[in-house]
Design brief:
The chain has 127 residues and is mainly alpha-helical. It folds into 2 domains: 36 residues; 82 residues, Cytochrome c-like domain (Cytochrome Bc1 Complex, Chain D, domain 2). 66% of the residues lie in helices and 0% in strands. It is built from 7 helices and no strands. Helix 2 crosses helix 7 and helix 3 packs across helix 7. The chain binds heme C (HEC). The site of heme C has 21 residues, from helix 4, helix 5 and helix 6.
Length: 127
């Protein structure tokens, strides 16, 4: 009984409790991020857009009319940032939200029909 040392045992127990709590928190964050993504894609507008196969040439015309003034012809950047390979940086849902949310002024809030948004998306995918 001389070597009995309750204090060191206590530390190891509380350490593994902290580890378990950290894993649980990480899991909760992952699940809620997934839930948020699911929630976003269950938005009827977004799922309508994603259900369509957009036309690139149509998307280009729409882009030239509505976006090129800021993003430059071909999306090379002007007032707005370059959109080259933007679909590698942003998800499809992220791109749709960027166009429809109006959360990053001076970029206006656009309200394209799902067809037009799908056309735009396929154009953006090709930049
Ligand atoms: C009045 C100028 C303006 C117009 C018009 C405009 N944008 Fe933008 N756009 C911006 C600015 C400025 C940003 C940067 C916003 C920020 O992140 O603060 C931006 C950001 C973006 C981004 C995100 C880029 C990235 O790297 O994350 C996308 C995608 C985008 N615009 C697409 C479009 C599309 C598509 C249109 C046409 C439907 C459009 N924009 C019209 C100014 C504009």
């Amino acid at each position: 009984m001389a070597n009995f040392s309750p204090s060191s045992e206590d530390t190891s127990i509380s350490f593994s409790r902290i580890a378990i709590a950290m894993v649980a928190i990480a899991l909760a964050i992952c699940l809620s991020a997934f839930g948020f993504y699911r929630f976003q894609t269950s938005d009827p507008y977004i799922s309508q857009v994603l259900a369509q196969k957009g036309e690139v040439t149509q998307g280009q015309e729409i882009f030239n009319l509505n976006c090129a003034a800021c993003h430059g012809a071909g999306g090379v950047g002007l007032v707005g940032p370059s959109l080259a390979k933007v679909s590698h940086r942003k998800s499809q849902v992220g791109l749709i939200n960027q166009v429809i949310s109006g959360k990053t002024p001076p970029m206006p809030k656009f309200q394209p029909s799902p067809e037009i948004m799908a056309d735009l998306l396929s154009y953006l995918d090709n930049l």
